[in-house]
Specification:
Radius of gyration: 19 Å
Number of strands: 4
Structural class: alpha/beta
CATH superfamily of the largest domain: Vaccinia Virus protein VP39
Order of helices and strands: HHHHEHEHEE
CATH class of the largest domain: Alpha Beta
Strand order of the largest sheet: 3-2-1-4
CATH topology of the largest domain: Rossmann fold
Number of helices: 6
Shape: globular
Length: about 190
């Protein structure tokens, strides 16, 4: 018997969930095809502990959010606050990251043009990617972007997935689940900073 636990091998992804088996069992106890339970707060609690449970279903449970439909998310575009207009894909999001504005916002083609001629950009990470527009623009250029989200008053991760993109739900203090030298590009719009 090993006294320090080195006789066990745990996968780095999801290994923390082993410490919260009761909570994870509670989270995963639902009837497949049954009524969707409002458990986003419980899922967020697991994420904050470092356990990222896989989504149980593809539909959105609207109970914890102010808006109860995609239509409501789009109609709040004139309200003040973070990302109130980012669900309106025909509004400001439509032209986002296409052009260099001369300031701190660079167009994607300008950024991709800075890479060395002998290098490629295949995969990246967008930290706090809103509704995934940066990932959508990069997908148009054959680059896969994983978009990290925090579902703060809107189901950003479900919305991103509905666009055919790849969300990852992370807490602020969590270690990223990528091996060294995996990412070719990392983007953050507002989350890192003041």
């Amino acid at each position: 018997m090993d006294r320090i636990g080195s006789d066990e091998i745990h996968s780095p992804i999801g290994a923390v969930c082993l410490r919260f088996q009761d909570e994870l069992n509670q989270y995963m106890s639902y009837d497949i095809g049954g009524e969707c339970l409002a458990d986003e707060v419980f899922a967020q609690m697991l994420v904050s502990k470092g356990c990222e449970p896989l989504p149980k279903r593809s539909n959105i449970v609207w109970d914890p959010y102010t808006c109860k439909s995609h239509k409501c998310l789009i109609e709040r575009k004139n309200n003040k606050g973070y990302c109130k207009d980012c669900f309106d894909l025909q509004g400001r999001e439509k032209g986002r990251w296409i052009f260099d504005d001369g300031g701190l916002d660079f167009g994607i083609d300008q950024v991709l043009g800075t890479k060395r001629s002998d290098s490629t950009i295949h995969i990246g990470l967008d930290i706090d990617g809103g509704t995934g527009t940066f990932a959508a623009r990069m997908k148009e250029r054959n680059v896969t972007i994983i978009t990290s989200t925090l579902d703060l008053d809107s189901s950003f991760s479900h919305f991103i997935a509905s666009r055919g993109l790849t969300p990852i739900h992370l807490s602020i203090s969590q270690r990223l689940q990528f091996f060294e030298n995996t990412l070719d590009i990392v983007h953050s719009m507002e989350f890192i900073g003041n």
